[in-house]
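Form 7-S
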Amino acid sequence: MKAFRWLPIIAAGVLLAKHFGVKMDCVCEHLLEKLPDRFPPKWIYLNITAIREQNDRIIALLEEQTRTSK
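Output:
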């Protein structure tokens, strides 16, 4: 029964995070731009961004390869 009391609060938190999530991404990018290049969280962000871009390229190449092999 205690879980049911927390359910609306959790649902509201998820909805707020979804609504403000895009805006927070822009805020985080602006904050990271202001940080010095030697700041470790900035390294982490840049590495994750590079990994995502690389994964997107790999997926695109694999999809193209499967289309041409059919």
